[in-house]
């Protein structure tokens, strides 16, 4: 079975966009790492328990020093630039997640014509999902340790 040219062209464009986006998030992750902004948001998926991160120390929970200390960062002060650097990295990561999902969804057209394309795209989606799940479990364990559960 042949894939029509328009569908193939759209899939190629989406695939190329997704590949560039993945490299971009790797670069942004390097910036987060090099700048030390990884603890700019100590919890996940929120940032200091909020969906939009704070811009000043006055917007933080009263016990934010305890939150940092429980995670091994007792001498860390709030830095809005690092917080927003980390938060921007997260937003870019979510966008890339949607690109990966759309690429996998679009690959369904290849299921009969070229199964390898479909299975590779589905595998990437499953691997990213597994990474998200494992990170979520790790985050829940950290929260339960902080709460003494």
**How many helix segments?**
4
Specify Rg, calculated over alpha carbons: 19 Å
Number of domains: 1
Order of helices and strands: HHHH
Question: Outline, from the CA principal axes?
Answer: elongated
Strand content: under 5%
- Mean pLDDT, to the nearest integer, reads 85
Q: Spans with pLDDT under 50 lasting ≥5 residues?
A: none
Give me the count of strands: 0
Report the biggest beta sheet as strand number plus sense, adding barrel if it closes.
none
Q: Which range best describes the helical content: under 10%, 10-25%, 25-40%, 40-55%, 55-70% or over 70%? A: 55-70%
Structural class: mainly alpha
Distance, first to last CA? 56 Å
Quick gist of this model?
This protein has 4 helices and no strands.
Overview of the structural elements:
The protein has 149 residues and is an all-alpha fold. The chain has one domain. Helices cover 66% and strands 0% of the residues. Helix 3 packs antiparallel against helix 4 (115-147).
């Amino acid at each position: 079975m042949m894939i029509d040219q328009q569908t193939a062209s759209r899939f190629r464009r989406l695939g190329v966009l997704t590949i560039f986006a993945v490299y971009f998030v790797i670069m942004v992750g390097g910036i987060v790492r090099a700048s030390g902004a990884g603890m700019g948001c100590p919890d996940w998926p929120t940032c200091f328990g909020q969906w939009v991160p704070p811009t000043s120390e006055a917007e933080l929970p009263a016990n934010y020093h305890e939150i940092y200390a429980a995670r091994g960062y007792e001498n860390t002060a709030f830095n809005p630039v690092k917080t927003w650097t980390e938060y921007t990295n997260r937003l870019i990561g979510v966008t890339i997640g949607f690109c990966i999902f759309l690429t996998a969804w679009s690959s369904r057209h290849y299921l009969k014509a070229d199964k390898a394309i479909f299975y590779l795209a589905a595998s990437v989606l499953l691997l990213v999902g597994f990474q998200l799940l494992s990170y979520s479990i790790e985050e829940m364990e950290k929260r339960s340790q902080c709460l003494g559960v």
